[in-house]
């Protein structure tokens, strides 16, 4: 696994920061926020692409791809899989909700100031949303099934689920899967503000507060997270370090609204049910549920309802739930993979990261959200859930490696 996040630029740094309750939200440095109702975000700090890429490649690559290549390099090194799988049996499923928006913005400014002849020949390949997948595929000569996914906030949970199915049904032996996003710029921020999605508190430690009664919107985040999925018997045979086994996947749609979740949460509940059924969940198992938990009033209420519908009221009360977006902000297309890593590490190490900033209970959100302190719990099962604009619902289920 590999991660570039607002609270750490390696897997180890990210995980230790989660357990410490470190909040990566602060005032925006990437652009001048004068005139903006929102001036905070969860930025990646001290990122050095030269640790992973040559100078010429950095110039020709959008930041969202740089994040992905860095996380992929970490994951590939951690996996020890290079040279252990045939190129045509190695795939890449890496998604992005937005793609190269920085490149899009700078290209548009260049067009207006200098005219069409001054647009870089690299503008299109830097901007398009499949290019993180393409760059990773080229770097690691992954010639097998290769597919970007674009389902907004559910993107990289879908990449993991689709990669799982691809391997399960024999189309690949291993897939580099995850998501990446670099959306902290003036245009994206203005757009999210004006669709009333972001918190307007502008208080770094009190703005991303999932499930809290006073939540008022999400905080934009950025970064990348990559997991290497491999067919179990092959991984075992080569002596791979196995963190966990992915066993189930749910994929549904609300078919309701372009941004709001369905108030009855049946689509999300069905996605959870699908993942639980495929993975062999049984009532009484100790479960860690990494929530989508965006800190928006409607989402957290609907997700709580979905959990109750999928597990039943009694079992829902016994779940260990947390939203790591309270620390990372909402990494959009990278969120699902970053949160899957949190779920896998929680399962692997028997420690559940907290939901930070939780102060006041909401009657509509009345489950155990692991408020403000990590919890030592040995779990049998972990779920990671993502719910995207457009009504996309995606859930992956993990069990400990045997």
Q: How would you briefly describe this protein structure?
A:
With 402 residues, the chain is α/β, with parallel strands linked by helices. Helices cover 36% and strands 17% of the residues. The protein folds into two domains: 2-237, Peroxisomal Thiolase, Chain A, domain 1 (3-Layer(aba) Sandwich), CATH 3.40.47; 244-400, Peroxisomal Thiolase, Chain A, domain 1 (3-Layer(aba) Sandwich).
What do these coordinates show?
By secondary structure, the chain is an alpha/beta fold. It folds into 2 domains: 2-237, Peroxisomal Thiolase, Chain A, domain 1 (3-Layer(aba) Sandwich), CATH 3.40.47; 244-400, Peroxisomal Thiolase, Chain A, domain 1, CATH 3.40.47.10. The chain is built from 14 helices and 13 strands. The protein has helices at 11-20, 55-59, 63-79, 101-114, 123-127, 131-140, 155-168, 186-194, 232-237, 266-279, 297-311, 313-317, 325-328, 335-349; strands at residues 2-4, 26-27, 40-41, 90-95, 174-181, 223-230, 244-253, 287-290, 320-322, 351-352, 375-376, 381-388, 392-400. Strand 12 and strand 13 (392-400) form a beta hairpin. The radius of gyration is 20 Å and the shape is globular. It starts with a strand and ends with a strand. The mean pLDDT is 97.
Name the CATH class of the largest domain.
Answer: Alpha Beta
What is the CATH topology classification name of the largest domain?
Answer: Peroxisomal Thiolase, Chain A, domain 1
Distance between the termini: 18 Å
CATH H-tier superfamily of the largest domain: Thiolase/Chalcone synthase
Structural class: alpha/beta
Mean pLDDT: 97
Oligomer: single chain
Q: Biggest sheet: strands, sense, closure?
A: 5 strands, mixed
Tell me the fraction of residues in β-strands, as a range.
15-25%
Number-wise, the strands total 13
If classified by CATH, what would the architecture of the largest domain be?
3-Layer(aba) Sandwich
Shape: globular
Number of domains: 2
* Strand neighbour order, sheet with most strands: 7-13-12-8-9
